[in-house]
Design a protein that fits this description.
Length: 217
């Protein structure tokens, strides 16, 4: 018996994304260049401020991914691996919607990103994900108890005006797609012990970029 593909409803999600990674500041991957040390691993976290998948509301839910790869993620690369945590507060319908959207099956930018990543998924789990972003983008942080802790403060320097943010427009390798403004930071913590990924460091690259996606087109 031949199965039929599920019908993808109209959907839209917008919110905050950030990462912490191995690269020096600024992460070359965001400029579509090879990572600082030829390979990269890090934490990627999404917070849905407003979202719907058909009639399913997704406001306030979080998704977290740990990932690694060798080479230029936007060009030739290998040894790509990932694992995902979904927000434990999501009910069955919301969880399915998050999997469809952030797994790339519902189209739009996530589909392009996951097709390009072409990595082996080491697993998926449901967990308590605490996600925070300061209103002034002074810092951002995410955690999964006993497994992931990542955070950063906004990048500053001797010529940065007080309270100003170091930002980039039209990034050639924007992880959330074109048209968004990246705010650069430096990690204060980046620790992972999950799905076979393990590292602990601080002081490396981080950036916050909003996301705004609609599908299924």
């Amino acid at each position: 018996m031949t199965g039929t593909a599920p019908t993808i409803p109209s959907w839209h999600v917008s919110g905050d994304w950030f990462d912490t990674c191995r690269c020096d500041v600024p992460c070359p991957c965001s400029f579509a260049q090879p990572p600082t040390y030829g390979e990269c691993d890090g934490v990627l976290a999404w917070h849905v401020r407003e979202g719907r998948y058909g009639d399913v509301r997704l406001d306030g839910l979080n998704v977290l991914m740990v990932a690694s790869f060798v080479g230029n993620i936007w060009a030739e690369h290998s040894d790509a691996y990932g694992a995902v945590f979904l927000d434990e507060r999501a009910d069955d319908g919301q969880r399915e919607a998050l999997q469809m959207i952030f797994g790339g099956q519902a189209g739009s930018w996530p589909q392009q990103m996951f097709t390009m990543f072409a990595g082996e998924m080491k697993g998926m789990d449901v967990a308590s994900i605490a996600f925070e972003v300061d209103d002034d983008l002074g810092s951002w942080r995410v955690s999964v108890p006993d497994k992931v802790e990542a955070g950063a403060t906004a990048l500053t320097g001797p010529t940065t005006p007080e309270g100003a943010r170091v930002q980039t427009t039209n990034l050639p390798g924007s992880e959330t797609g074109p048209g968004q403004v990246a705010t650069w930071g430096r990690s204060t913590t980046d620790r992972v012990d999950a799905f076979g990924f393990q590292w602990s460091r601080e002081g490396q690259s981080s950036k916050h970029i909003p996301f705004d996606w609609s599908g299924p087109d």
